[in-house]
Amino acid sequence: MKLVIHPAIDETRLNKIRHAASSMVVVNARDADEALSEIADADAFFGKLTPPLLARASKLRWVQSPTASLEHYLFPELVAHPCILSNMRGLFSDVIADHVMGFVLCFARNLHVYLRQQQQGLWSPVGDTRYVTDFVSAPGTVTPMDRAHQHLSDCTLGVVGVGSIGAEVLRRAAAFGMKLRGVDPVCRSVPETLPSVWPLDRLDDLLAESDYVVIAAPHTPETEKLFRRSRIQQMKRTGILINIGRGAIVDLMDLVAALQSGDIAGAALDVCEVEPLPSDHPLWRMPNVIITPHVAAASTHVAVRHLDTLLENIRRFQRGEPPATIVDKTKWY
């Protein structure tokens, strides 16, 4: 059997791959011409597969994508080809879930407001600037400042797309005592966290019940622009929309309109429909919006996990077993 890698990788990873591949021939193609020549009789491929490479392959049975997302990897001929495709899902679940809870805590405790006020040297509690007087004159009274700062156990968090990332978000939210909701086309439960994950036809129910809506779905033909204005309006007016899935799922101009009209209370975005988000985009200047530049998956652990997943799938292929991260090419996940 033969495995072709393209683009070429470094010697350290290559040696580990050759060890995992055992008796398989491993070709680390130095350029496109070598890849085109070597893939003709290859059984497996790791890297960026292109239509010309696939057209030349006569024995290809397995393709390993170097990424978790597939919207820019798939093309019609690959979808139709009988080869098995696997991806790199599951590498970022915990770190992205941490990022989500950072967004949640910012909005729950107004940290994004206080960070901006700090730059101005401004001491101004959200909800009531006269809180000291009120507190002294009426101890034990619930003030507007109290109401402006949420207790997470009073809140519901809903996840759209309960894959590995979405499930981890729910586990993190459960640790804060939040009430949980989830919708997914496949997953029906998250063991020890959420006994019942709803089917997609209950998405509007999730939106209506959730204080925080977290988009953790992949970009597929079904999810593209899933969140238009009418969908966003199904959320609570006090709700916060968080997107760490794919930018194409949320129509940004519709989101702007929803925020300007008070349809929802705020949004946190790590991914955007257009990246980088243009500097003149109105979202940058909205005080109820938090934007991070597609960094939710940043972690020193990811490179090791990436290689471990590749090696495990190579060992599985060598033993005649399916990869651990097999995907449905027709569904893009």
Descriptive account of the structure:
Helix 11 links the parallel strand 8 (212-215) and strand 9 (240-243). With 333 residues, this protein is of the alpha/beta class. The protein has two domains: 2-89 and 301-318, NAD(P)-binding Rossmann-like Domain (Rossmann fold); 93-110 and 149-291, Rossmann fold, CATH 3.40.50. The chain has a six-stranded parallel sheet, sandwiched between helices. Strands 2-1-3-4-5 form a five-stranded parallel sheet, sandwiched between helices. The two termini are 27 Å apart. Helices cover 34% and strands 13% of the residues. Helix 1 (11-21) runs parallel beside helix 13 and helix 5 packs across helix 9. It has helices spanning 11-21, 32-38, 51-56, 76-80, 93-109, 111-118, 131-137, 144-147, 164-175, 203-209, 229-232, 252-260, 302-318; strands at 2-6, 25-28, 44-47, 62-64, 84-86, 156-160, 179-183, 212-215, 240-243, 266-269, 289-291.
Regarding CATH, which class of the largest domain?
Alpha Beta
If classified by CATH, what would the architecture of the largest domain be? 3-Layer(aba) Sandwich
User: How many β-strands, per DSSP?
Assistant: 11
CATH superfamily of the largest domain: NAD(P)-binding Rossmann-like Domain
Which regions contain 5 or more consecutive residues with pLDDT less than 50? 131-135
Shape, principal axes of CA atoms: elongated
**What is the helical fraction, as a range of percent?**
25-40%
Tally of individual domains: 2
Gyration radius over CA: 24 Å
> Mean pLDDT, nearest integer?
95
Termini separation comes to 27 Å
H/E series: EHEHEHEHEHHHHEHEHEHEHEEH
CATH fold annotation of the largest domain? Rossmann fold
Largest sheet: 6 strands, parallel
Strand coverage percent: 5-15%
Q: Taking strands numbered 1, 2, ... along the chain, how are they ordered across the largest sheet?
A: 7-6-8-9-10-11
| Structural class based on helices, strands and sheet pairing | alpha/beta
